[in-house]
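Subject: two folds for Thursday's group meeting

Dear M.,

Sorry for the delay on this. The cluster queue was jammed most of the week, so I only got both jobs back this morning. I'm pasting them in the order they finished. Each block is the input sequence followed by the predicted structure tokens. Could you check whether the formatting survives your parser before we put anything on slides? The first protein is the one we discussed after the seminar.
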Amino acid sequence: MAQINPSILSADFARLADEAKAVDGADWLHVDVMDNHFVPNLTLGVPVVDALAKATDTPLDCHLMIEEPDRWAPQYVEAGAGSVTFHAEAAAAPVRLAREIRAKGARASMALKPATPVEPYEDLLPELDMLLVMTVEPGFGGQAFLDIMLPKIRRTRQLIEKHGLQLWLQVDGGVSASTIERCAEAGADVFVAGSAVYGAENPAAAVEALRAQAEEAAHRANGS
């Protein structure tokens, strides 16, 4: 089943609790944490995640676009995140970090920038609950989808199936009504959508429409 994770990067930061309620039907709420070092933007941190976790029943999917995730990621689990994603390019010890996140009770996820290949991390995949393939350069919302990432999504799905893993495959960046079907056909099953949800007149309806599109495309790709 396709999962839709609205990104609060595209929400009104002055009304985050209300914006979370506006997408009650979402599977997760995607929280972009940026430190102005790993990426050239600064967003929010542990205190906001802690407050948001108390304000919504939708689980939080925290994407850490930060340096030193080995040091900081466990704090996001303690703040209430149900899933924590660290970047392969930033983690000093990704296996140890994934195990620590899991041990603290959250799902462990690793993200790859567009230029980072998945193949060197094949042996690490069993340590993860989700792999995020970035379909834009991380750092800013509202960017155009990078079609050149579709083969990488397909290769990642092939690796997941090769090893028989129950690993979610997430895409983030430029996901919209015009791109989500291509992502689903390539093998993604978790979709981060920012402006496609929060820029819609009815964010909750946008979530349902995107999910339906993704599921229909996945059925077509699987011949069912």
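Second protein, same layout:
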Amino acid sequence: MSSTHGTFRLIYEDASWFLGKLLLLYITLPLTAAWIIIGTSFDMDKTLSSISSPAYFFFIPFYGVMGFKSLLPIAVSLGGTRTQMLKSFYVIGVSSVFVYMLVLNLLQCLLWTLYDRGVSSVSITHAGMFHSSEYQFLPYLWIDLMVGLILFGGAFFIYCITYRAGMTRTLIGIMIIAIAAMFLYYSGVLEAPIAWLSTLNINAMTGFTIAGIAGLAALLTTYPMMRNASLQPKQQRE
């Protein structure tokens, strides 16, 4: 087995377990079944359900960090390179997030169909409601994909900055940027750019698409940051 194939298989098995087995089989599917049983058994007065919250607020950002952090030393010790690790992580990570979002939307479509036909009293809450209050499979799926990209790419980008710069320097940098932004905002320097942005009238679909592209760009930016990185974060080497 080549080192490239071995690295790819290592990350694939980890993603399959974390996003496929743990998140989908043990959390999302039982949560969906619970909402269906509740909605068909009780009159919930149009209660909004959410089966995407575990993925949005924990699992996808968490995998964006731990999926790489835990496997980097293992992949290198087995003969893989950091470049192979990064490329495999990008491909498998993004593909796994997309597959999960597809299954998630099929389950949400099931919940909405039961509610729309009067079988269940439980509807769904979704970021796609900013686009349309009526459930639409493809637009809602696209929005979930874009949210997945910004969560996965953003979390990994922040982790890589902390990995290379150290927690202390990262926090100092964040505070410098935040304080500078406060001075620029309250001094009126940002009034013109903010006013210009408000005139663009960006709709929800465009906004989510821009966010997804930003997440993908952040993910790809980590390649030059991590391709020659040490096996240990900076704070552990100081």
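Two things I noticed about the second structure. Residues 3-41 form the longest helix (39 residues). The mean pLDDT is 86.

Cheers,
T.
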